[in-house]
Amino acid sequence: MFLKARILIGEIYIMCGIVGYVGKKSVVDILLNGLTKLEYRGYDSAGIAVSVDNKIEMYKEEGKLQNLKNLVEPKKDYLKSSTMGIGHIRWATHGAPNTINAHPHSCTCGKLVIVHNGIIENFKELREELKNDGCVFRSETDTETLAHLIAREYGKVNNLTDAVRLATKQINGAYAICVMHQDVPNTIVATKRNAPLLVGIGQNEYYVASDVPAIIDYTKTAVYLDDNQIVTLTPDSMKLINSFSVELQPHIETLPWESVSLSKMGFKHFMLKEIHEQPSIIRNLLSGKIIADNQPIKLDEVKLDLDTIKKLDRIQIVACGTSLHAAMIGKYILEDFCGISVDVEPSSEFIYRKTTTNDKTLVIGVSQSGETADTITAVKQSKKQGSHILIITNRPDSTMAREANSLIPVNAGIEVSVAATKSYMAQLISFYLLALHIAEIKGSIESAKLMALKHGLITLPEKAEEILDHKKLIQEIAKKYANFKNFVFVARGLNYATALEGALKLKEISYINATGYPAGELKHGPIAMLDESMPVLSIMMKGMVYDKILSNSEEAKARDARMIALTNSDDEKLNDLFEDIIRIPDVDEYLSPIIAIIPLQLLAYYIAEFLGKDVDQPRNLAKSVTVE
Ligand code: F6R
């Protein structure tokens, strides 16, 4: 019964990126450039379909986008005159990541082509039905079913828009699609349900894309499609209808974006560049919000007044992956500073149980992309239950942001590397601002402590810079430990989440089996694994639990584990206990997670780089995880 309720809210299953263009310009570079900007959405295979002399031609290649670019390069002169096309970058859901399953897909006669983000849930039934009708299937994908289905409708109604409209009525699931038909020249039809899609408007030209970066080099004017709207684009016209064929007035918006630079700025990888951006991200986020130690924090984005805050009996935070780790630190400081009980739960768990969020709960959704399917669903469910929804995201234009009652844009700038670094930092700073802001309104924190924390926050960028200036040592430590197969990170209190995040960074880009534990839990099981083949990195920040972690580290050392410390202490005792010590500048214990994560990001980076891994695009991952 509960699952049924969830489906009614609307599930979201999208990976991949799509792009389309119809106009007067040569289309191939527009498509390839757009796909480059969407590469964060997947990189299993890529393809384009273009109209050349009113004939549709497809180019597809498995693997990275570069393979498609290499395939197309020798044909560029020949394809120069083409001014209409669609493109796709894939993260495989149905069917192996090979050339046959790469998009675009076509109908039996090859005249209709489609690119698709999403999953057609009833594709198996439809596939059988279409096969019985004589359709010839070439791939294992759900998308191909849609190509045949639309083609079948087109055969009946002889109108591409209507064919798309009638076909999408027969499918369950989520989709954003772009369709072209050889017999309907200069026309792209696009539609969506529970997947993002926008139409960029130029001079006698239109663009379609899953996300803004794909089109922002060409236009800042766009229409975000709503679910079940169908748009028909020609170089000179845009017609928007709903699923009943009623014509709609498009809501044209100006995109609040600058052209997206994908430059590594001299760094070897985007990840390293993004790690280095963190001091200025902290500075920018604090600027205008903490004006002076003795002045209230300005957080106008948060639409919670004293009455509402007083009525709150709890806060529920939902997030996934790295954002979940930021949320764990958020819980710690919100409870401590504001005296409100806070639960944190992975969104994927939250949405499959009977939850008790209501109008006395503040629900915080945290997401870099704002497109994570599980978090969107969690937020939508809570909104239905009457909760105030606060979204912390790097994408104020995202699907999740559109659900917000209060929105904190973290302004980290586009994050290209799949492993999140700077967006985590920006989420952390946002949580500190939020917790201190609520505490200030409630009067739940001593003013001396509040002033000290505000002051401490302002000094953080310099401390982060100091860590980056000493990265050579971390690089050496990385080399020393790069060939270990397992790694344990331990910490207590606030920095337990730092241990989890450090371990996640290492495993996702180097594929080393790294795990984070609360140090006190080691002896309840994990200690059995320890021996000389297992490095243990102890996060030892001065404060309440410092001595406890010291004892836990002694216990690990006694089992011959290779010991590494990350600390802000100059305690001499550490030299005997630890083989390697990464020292970071001194900082208030409460603020320590903000800078403690930087050496761990660098450690993961240098280990992966030393091992020759694909740092920015690790295997099996995509930046926006929009499937369940
Ligand atoms: C790890 C990473 C992922 C994301 C997670 C949630 O480096 O990037 O764990 O944090 O997929 O994504 P968002 O924050 O976009 O909801």
**How would you state the average pLDDT, rounded?**
92
Low-confidence stretches: 1-14
Main sheet strand line-up? 3-2-4-1-10-9-11-15
Strand content: 15-25%
Q: Using DSSP, what is the number of strands?
A: 25
The chain-level structural class is alpha/beta
Radius of gyration: 26 Å
Which range best describes the helical content: under 10%, 10-25%, 25-40%, 40-55%, 55-70% or over 70%? 25-40%
In a few lines, what is going on in this structure?
The chain has 628 residues and is α/β, with parallel strands linked by helices.
Q: What does the model show?
A:
The chain is α/β, with parallel strands linked by helices and 628 residues long. Residues 1-14 have low confidence and may be disordered. Helix 6 (142-157) crosses helix 7 (160-168) and helix 15 packs parallel to helix 20. It has 20 helices and 25 strands. Strand 16, helix 11 (321-338) and strand 17 form a beta-alpha-beta unit. It has an eight-stranded antiparallel β-sheet with strand order 3-2-4-1-10-9-11-15, covered by helices on one side. Fructose -6-phosphate is lined by residues 320-323, 367-369, 372, 375, 419-420, 504, 508, 625.
Layout of strands and helices, then pairs:
Layout: H1 2-9, E1 17-22, H2 27-37, E2 45-52, E3 55-62, H3 65-72, H4 76-79, E4 84-90, E5 105-106, E6 112-120, H5 123-132, H6 142-157, H7 160-168, E7 173-181, E8 188-193, E9 198-202, E10 205-209, E11 221-224, E12 230-234, E13 237-241, E14 247-248, E15 253-254, H8 270-276, H9 278-286, H10 306-311, E16 314-319, H11 321-338, E17 342-346, H12 347-350, E18 361-367, H13 373-384, E19 388-393, E20 406-409, H14 422-442, H15 447-469, H16 471-481, E21 486-491, H17 496-510, E22 513-518, E23 535-540, H18 546-557, E24 562-567, H19 573-577, E25 580-583, H20 592-610
Parallel strand pairs: 16-17, 16-18, 18-19, 19-20, 21-22, 21-23, 23-24, 24-25
Antiparallel strand pairs: 1-4, 1-10, 2-3, 2-4, 5-6, 6-7, 7-8, 8-12, 9-10, 9-11, 11-15, 12-13, 13-14
Helix pairs in contact: 5-6, 6-7, 9-14, 9-15, 11-14, 11-17, 15-20, 16-20, 17-20
The structure holds fructose -6-phosphate.
